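Handoff note, outgoing to incoming analyst
You'll be picking up this chain. Sequence as last confirmed:
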Amino acid sequence: MGTLEARDAPKSPAQDAWDERMKDWMEGGDRILALGQEYRRRYREKVCSGCSHEQKVRRDCASLSPNCDELECGHMTRAFARRHRRDIERHMASHPLAVRIRLNAGLASRRQ
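Most recent structure output, in case you need it:
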């Protein structure tokens, strides 16, 4: 039985361009994640510190779970998503594959 040897083939310029677009897109995602962490930190300082026990129960706060000291609730997540919805949607729409599909669909419709 023969052996299979894997070799790295040199990348084409198109593959290099695709890799750069993906890298840029991932950096944009990292920016949104950092924005989310900062938002949650400020939210904990301002809102969570004033939450009563009843509000924590209603919002299903993670701090009510045994052995959990993290303040995190669905209200916080929804507030971030509401506030930064445009940034998140723009980022998802700018994925290189989604852009390529839209461009190909536009070209196909113009050909008809």
